[in-house]
Amino acid sequence: MSRLRYNRKQAVDILCRQCPSLGRFISSCGPLKLKVARDRDLFNALAAAIIYQQLSGKAAATIHGRFCGLFTDQVPEAGQATDLAFEDLRAVGLSRNKALAVQDLAEKSLNGSLVPMHRMGRLNDEEIMENLCQVRGIGPWTAQMYLIFNLGRPDVMPSADLGVQKGVQAVYRLDELPAPEQVADQTAHLAPYRSAAAWYFWRAADTVLMT
Question: Is 161 a catalytic residue?
């Protein structure tokens, strides 16, 4: 894993000042351990994101491992992916929709539809999300995960994420699970470090599940 593109301590200090409720949880939770992936290949990273959608970690890891086995040195690459038959993808465990999504991702990775990772630094978050969401099977949630965990963008709040919603409910002691719009409103003041805040909300949700 590689480092974030922003200062951890500064992010945590600002979050604690801006939100006492979150600050109390941060004090009990400990240091920010959010990291970004080393993978610099767009197809590889997004194919993994597609495969992991709506699956448990263990099941997704098994299918992803089989998927990697279809490629030279077990490293997924768009050029090789276009040579794979639909049946090859289905045979390693991909659902019909995910197999179609991987094929579309490979095609768009090669035809110039997707901005290469090394050029994404010139784009803002909204532009990157718009670019990624043109791929079948990639919606706002997957694009936001890519911004947080692959690009290390500092100010992303995935308000439709169930874990974030549960974390917001726990930190702010809400009676009901907040809707995405409420999460966005409740956390707007945590800019410009909402990615770090989201990480702590995920931890808060985990804490609730363990108690």
Answer: yes
